[in-house]
# Entry
Amino acid sequence: MNNLLTKLTASPRAGRLSPLFDIFDDFDRSFLVPENFSNDNIRFNETDKQLHVEIDLPGVKKKDLKVTYNEDTNLAYVKAKRNVTTKTGTTEETFTRSFRIDTGDYEGAKVSSKLSDGVLTLTVPRKVQKEHTVIDVKVD
# Structure
């Protein structure tokens, strides 16, 4: 338990995965966070109707943003780039992230996205659960 607490409370560094991701084996490690971005910019929120994923992408323009969904792997993939000007010049930073959508609960093919004020919001509707059929029991 102490090891778990240490992993959860350790301070993430830019360019490294948050300690929380080490717990989940389902995380697709082929899309690691670039050195220029920290992990504190993603928020997940589930409601009874949908899943919201908010990703802070300051300075990213719509033309430099690509969101895809692969139905075969159930992965949503976000790729963004932006130009950052510093004292030494202008550099291009990239951001890539993927996450798996649970198709047992959500309609992955109906994912929608919106970019507003530097925040990308992905919305995935929850599948409508069928009501259970009540079967009349006959008594002889």
Observations:
- The first helix runs from residue 2 to 9.
- The beta strands are 42-46, 50-56, 65-70, 75-86, 89-100, 112-116, 119-125.
